[in-house]
Amino acid sequence: MNRRMVILIVTAILLPVSFCVSISVGAASVPVLETIRILCGYDSESRFLYIIRDIRLPQALAAVLAGAGLSVSGATMQSVLRNPLCSPFTLGISSAAAFGAAATLYLSGGEISLADNMLLGSSRFFVTGRGGIALGAFFCAVTTTGVVLLLGQVRGTRSESIILVGVALSSLFSAALMFLQYIADDSRLAAIVYWTFGDTARANWNSLILMAVCVLPVSLYFLYQSWNYNVLVLGEESARSLGVPVRRLQILTMLFASLLTAVLVSLLGIIGFVGLVVPHVARLWVGSDHRFLLPFSLLFGGLLLLIADTSARLIFAPRILPVSILTAFIGVPVFLSLLLSKRN
Questions:
Q1: What is the DSSP string of 56-119?
Q2: Domain boundaries, position 25
Q3: Stretch among 60-64, 155-159, 257-261 having the lowest mean pLDDT
């Protein structure tokens, strides 16, 4: 068994172990064995059932899904654009999705935040509920993706052009978001700040269904395209000569990555650096072969955000620190150290 398979297996084992530990620790601790019993469907004390099923289990599942979705999106974006700095965060897609969600909130009068308990099957969910926020976020994210690809195509899809376009669009949407916050009244401002602040604690079972419906099939598509991503690394001309539909692959990959980003931002807020740092760690540990890179990005991204979310819950317990703050504090030095280690 080679080294890459060992790393994948170890990560796959650590994820469920960390998951059980995560939902057992907190301001009110639950014994790990009791946690496993509850997860297996056995009855327990009412307070333990409430803590696990209604509070910590949705939050932990949201962390795993969000970490996996953001990581695999970043890895595939870096592959199709052949730029190690590409991610939903650096290309402005996260900022665009946040602005779309905020604009939807502003136009609705800030009332969408009260729609947490709506069922996914109801029409009102997609008009005024979280589905409405996801649609607004998706529209802006896809528009930004189209602009990035179009301008990159005009400039020959050069990596530096892509990054510069992304930085400019990110600044534009950040300014637009600040403008919305400036002109908003108190109720709208509170709703906008709440939704753009990255935090897995706001996840519930309805939002988890929407996240899973997006993350799982899109991740399967990315895994299915692993060979094409490997060929694309050799260059667009080489990929075309081997029968890879380069343009369609780029567009679909960016579209699906934008979908994941839009849904995750609209439900959890902006969680930065996960989609940028995890693919770099994955390449360092398992190499650039996408047959290993993408599965490891999924597993390690979920594991990393789960650990970060658990740490954020424990640092100032019983107060809960939003995980986006911790990922930013951790992501910057980790990314800088990776850059310095590659230069050396």
A1: IHHHHHHHHHHHHHHHHHHHHHHHHTT-TT--TTTTTHHHHHHHHHHHHHHHTTS-GGG-TT--
A2: 3-343
A3: 155-159
